[in-house]
Amino acid sequence: MAIANFRPGVRGVSPLLPLLLLLWVGSFPSPVKASDLVLVGGTLIDVDHGGSSTDDVADAVVVIHDGTITRVGSRGKVAITPGSRVLDVRGSYLVPGLIDGFGALRGQAFADAYLYEGVTSVLVTESPIGTDGEQVIADLAHGPRLLRGATISGYSLTGTVPKQSPWSDHRAHDRPLSKEELTAEIDHYAAQGFRSLMISLDVLPEQLPMILDSARRHHMATFGEVAFTPYSDAIRDGIGVLIRNDHYETALSPAADRAAYADDPMGNGALRAVRGVCDLALTSETLAQLGDQLAHSTTALMPVLTIESTADDLGTPSPWAMRSAAFVNPSDLDDPVDPTTGGRPYLLSHPDRKDALRACAQHREDIDSALHQRGALYLAGSGAPSFGILPGGGLHQELRSLQKIGLTPRQALAAATSSYAELFRWNDVGQIAAGRAADILVVTSDPRKDIAALEEIQLVVHDGQLVDRQALLARATGRKPDAR
After folding, report:
1. What's the CA gap between 181 and 186, in Å, rounded?
2. Is the bond into 385 cis (omega within 30 degrees of 0)?
3. Are 476 and 451 in contact (CB under 8 A)?
4. Which residues fall within 8 angstroms of residue 373, CB to CB, at 6 or more apart?
5. Residue 253 CB: number of other CB atoms within 10 A?
6. Is residue 331 part of a domain?
7. What is the DSSP letter of 139?
8. 396-427 b/e with 16+ CB inside 10 Å = b?
9. Crossing angle between the packed helical segments 285-295 and 354-373, to the nearest 10 degrees
């Protein structure tokens, strides 16, 4: 009779059997603890302080135990426990696992694509029902580290904002949330494990400081697309990140256009303000003032350059030419590029303005370049799956775009790693250091010379485990018969 069929108290079974079984099991040695995983011989690239630090470690040793980095240093200075699993990565380069600050997890295909490309953490902001963005995050058994973000409104506990304009009516007649209501809402999100807040367009200038203070208490990152609150006020008050350059660059529009944006930030007012930026001179005093304010602040910019470079076809490759395309189908994405013709739906829907749209998108990149030159700090977010941006590959495209606007490769690398840890005091991701989660990307080319080297992946370690990239690709091929 199989052991699983014994039931104490059933006729014919001795009452001493449970004790005998315990003695029998106890006679075997305890299971051996999992050995450490050790990476030896690679160059550990320092990406601290926004990519300005250069304390790289040649011939490095990184010891990992139970999903956590326990020791880091040069060979000869770091003890390796006998019996450890040692991987020789001489000639390679070690960087923290990449963080996508503006992504989505719509299913296992997205999760696999991220891990395949070395993206070990994804920040997904949950949008209110009925609005653009991610209302649902897939509940997955395996995938990158999910960093959940919530949306907070100045007027609604659900985070929703009005769809009708003018918003001056909203501001005149609707009751804004009190300090107590906002604080209780943020406390609730923090208790649920949310890592960030997206501050909505209708948050008032007097509400923003109290929101930021509450978020800081919980080490929650704060992102913003503000309208009722001027961007200069948001920077002064210490908002963490201004997101999307077609939004935050409206701070450079003429005063009348900014007023129109505040009154109708989701319609014609937004279009007017965005177009107002298209004619801005790069030598503008307004641009210089914004750059200087950012340089002397704790606020970073997340331009999500890949959205416009993909939607407006600014010379970036078709997403379907990327290896991440093996993981998804066009139906998985929003407004995808046509996989056959390469057509961009947004441009095709505006045939009479195609050249103007592309010129303005390029000009906004030039503005970001000018802001970077004046000292603005940048974070990386892909915007996947908007306009057909791919999970995983989209972040690599964003890093190439950040390098294009003038960030050094080391600064671009920091934008997807250590700057998150430093800005938001996150103590688990973004750095290769003792006590951090063991999320590590090992590449065969030097990303200090060209950020595209991050795509030359040798190994991905996530949560202390080696990611079987070939198995992920094989699963994608089986799931997607027409995979490239």
Report:
1. 9
2. yes
3. no
4. 291, 406
5. 22
6. yes
7. -
8. bbbbbbbbbbbbebbbbbbbbbbbbbbbbebe
9. 50
Q: Are 388 and 310 in contact (CB under 8 A)?
A: yes
Helices (H) and strands (E) counted in the chain, each on its own, are 18, 17
User: DSSP letter string over 422-436?
Assistant: HHHT-SSSSS--TTS
258 touches 230 (CB < 8 A): yes
Token pair, residue 393, equals 């590959």
Core vs surface per residue 353-370: b (16+ CB within 10 A) or e: ebeebbebbebbbebbeb
The Cα–Cα gap between 185 and 415 comes to 29
- Tell whether 189 is covered by a domain: yes
What's the CA angle centered on 269, arms 196 and 165, to 5 degrees? 85
What CATH number corresponds to the domain at position 274? 3.20.20.140
3-state secondary structure of 136: coil
**H or E stretch including 394?**
helix 393-404
Domain-located, residue 443: no
Structural domain includes residue 130:
yes
Encode pLDDT of 278-310 as tens digits: 999 999 999 999 999 999 999 999 999 999 999
CA distances, 405 to each of 337, 370, 400 (Å): 24, 8, 9
Number of domains within the chain: 1
Torsion angle (degrees, nearest 10) of CA 7, 8, 11, 13: 90
Residue 87 has pLDDT above 60, yes or no: yes
pLDDT, one tens digit per residue, over 148-183 is 999 999 998 888 887 777 888 888 888 999 999 999
What average pLDDT score do residues 18-22 get?
Answer: 36
- Helices 469-479, 108-116: axis angle to 10 degrees equals 140
Cβ-contact 15, 62 below 8 angstroms: no
| Structural domain harbouring 155 | 97-429
Question: What is the per-residue pLDDT across 349-405, written as a single tens digit (0 to 9) for each?
Answer: 999 999 999 999 999 999 999 999 999 999 999 999 999 999 999 999 999 999 999
Both tokens assigned to 163:
């769809």
pLDDT at 32 exceeding the cut of 80: no
* Dihedral angle, C-alpha 334, 124, 472, 401, nearest 10 °: 70
pTM greater than 0.85 (yes/no): yes
Structure confidence at residue 328 (pLDDT): 96
CA distance 399 to 381: 9
* Listed residue (462, 463, 446, 466) closest to 454, CA to CA: 446
